[in-house]
Amino acid sequence: MLDIKNELGKKIRLIREQKGLSREAFCGDEIQLTVRQLSRIETGESLPTLPKLTFISQNLAVPIHHLIDEKHMELPKKYLQLKSSLLKTSTFKEEDRITLKESYFDKIYEEFYDALPEDEQLSIDVQQAAMDVNLTENTDFGTGILSEYFFQLQHKEEYSLNDLLIVNLYFNCIYYKEYDENLFDKLLNDVISQVDYSVDMELFLVNTILLTAVSVIIKYQSYSELDKIVKISNLIMQKSKDFHKKPIIDMIEGKYLLFSEKNVEKAKEKYLLGAQGAEFFGDQLLSAKIKEEWENDLATNS
Question: What is the tens place of the pLDDT at every residue in 2-12?
Fold first, then answer.
């Protein structure tokens, strides 16, 4: 794969230079491709995503298959399984779950990472950064990725899987530092709008981002906003037929009823329903955490 990256990079650079285009002129406003990204592609450090490769081929006025055999864009099934496991594993800051998730990262970095195209490497890096930010409460782990990709993301209407991951990383960071309410609200609404575009794993990830957003909302005590999250999340679960997040959503609805509506009895019902749902899915840890959350929230609300 290293030879493929090098060969592709050399072709792109040769044709670009033959056309008398600097990297800056080639990339233009950098919304589709930044100068830094093009540099990494041309030096063989990364394999471009299909959208970036399409952009490059159009700007060079050559077909994609003249640049690279598209079969090289295929991904190993084992890698895709590990990536799916990463996306679906929540740690709740519990040692066993952290160890499990780290084992997925280790296997990907050891067996697949160097041969992955840029978008897949970014996917793994963003998830690693989000986990590091969450566990250490140090937003520096997300700074590099956000400084490079966040600008492009803000100019899109339809998000890719990586765009969603970057929003999730941003939400993890602003929980600890530099909360901008207006930008948070805009991004949250943008994420919610993706329900119309998304399927399968993207829908799952949108729901994950909503839960990260809930943490930010609760920290800044905007409890009335929780009702919107609950409704959208329930809609996603109906659309995807995946109800594994239902216990957490029931707990969040309980928080809305407790802190915004001041309805203790209905809130208690939702917390207990969430705990029972977690038990139904075989997640005793989550069930216990929901029960503990009820006791803590009830004491806070007293």
Answer: 578 899 999 99
Query: Is residue 130's pLDDT more than 60?
Result: yes
Instruction: Using the 3D structure, point to which of 20, 53, 73 is the last residue of a domain.
Output: 73
> At 97, which amino acid appears?
R
What residue has token string 């919304």? 31
Note down the domain range covering 35: 2-73
What is the rounded distance in angstroms from the CA atom of residue 178 to the CA atom of residue 14?
A: 43
CA distance 47 to 24: 19
Statement: residue 260 has pLDDT above 90: yes
CB atoms within 10 A of CB 70: 11
Identify whether the C-beta of residue 253 lies closer than 8 Å to the C-beta of residue 218.
no
Q: What local confidence, expressed as pLDDT, does residue 72 receive?
A: 62
| 68 φ/ψ sector (left φ>0, alpha ψ -120 to 50, else beta) | beta
- pLDDT at residue 1 in the model: 52
Q: How many domains does the chain have?
A: 2
What's the maximum distance between 2 C-alpha atoms anywhere in the chain? 73
Tokens 């990079």 found at: 9
